[in-house]
Design a protein that fits this description.
Blueprint (H helix, E strand, L loop, with lengths): L1 H9 L26 H15 L4 H11 L4 H13 L3 H13 L5 H11 L7 H11 L4 H13 L7 H13 L3 H13 L8 H12 L13
Length: 219
């Protein structure tokens, strides 16, 4: 049951050489903590107690007990509210999380502004939200790379796009690693084919390190 709740929100958008459409958004979980690392780590630890609960009602009760003070509870209840199409509540929770300096909430809110779900569609706002969190959240970096590579809401900037992809890939985002392999294999986005870089990222993937970049958003 929990998979059905989480997966639609967490599904990764796929790059394709033959189908470069507007980006869809994925949720992110490599965690680079905020300035107050200790406080942030404690908040995450507390929220993860709720996340480990099997029963959905107990899980929600647990989050709601701490939601006024815990930015990760706000984030997860926000993404859960998106799944339930309760956009008013989702926006409230996600804005709370952002106000409490949780950069991971930017991606979820950017998703709503990009799609126009529960808010007036605003790609400028989505672009800014992703930009503000792309140095912390690998998922935001991965999504923002599409904007620069395709010139969505900005001028094409392949260097910036590749830089964002490499950041995401360095945090073990497998989708970003695979995209870099595709770029350097086929010479996409004005990049020269580069067998050395292809092998480097292929070797990283072969290590089979678990990609946990979505855990932070899971209820």
């Amino acid at each position: 049951m929990l998979k059905k709740i989480a997966l639609p929100i967490l599904s990764v958008f796929l790059f394709s050489a033959c189908s470069l459409k507007m980006p869809e958004f994925s949720m992110p979980s490599f965690l680079s903590f905020s300035n107050d690392e200790e406080k942030d780590a404690l908040a995450l630890e507390k929220a993860n107690v709720c996340q480990k609960m099997e029963n959905i009602d107990n899980k929600l009760f647990c989050y709601r007990k701490i939601v006024d003070e815990n930015s990760y509870a706000q984030l997860r209840l926000g993404t859960y509210s998106v799944e339930k199409k309760d956009y008013k509540k989702a926006i409230e929770y996600l804005n709370q999380s952002i106000q409490n300096k949780n950069a991971y909430a930017n991606l979820a809110l950017a998703f709503l502004y990009y799609k126009g779900d529960g808010v007036e569609k605003d790609i400028d706002k989505a672009f800014k939200l992703l930009g503000d969190s792309s140095d912390t959240d690998p998922n935001a970096a991965y999504q923002l790379s599409r904007f620069y590579l395709q010139g969505i809401n900005t001028e094409v900037n392949t260097d910036k796009g590749i830089e964002l992809l490499e950041f995401a890939a360095s945090k073990n985002m497998i989708a970003a690693q695979k995209m870099l392999i595709k770029i350097y294999t086929e010479g996409l986005f004005s990049q020269e084919k580069n067998a050395k870089k292809v092998k480097e990222w292929q070797d990283v993937i072969k290590k089979d390190v678990r990609d946990t970049n979505f855990e932070v958003y899971k209820l």
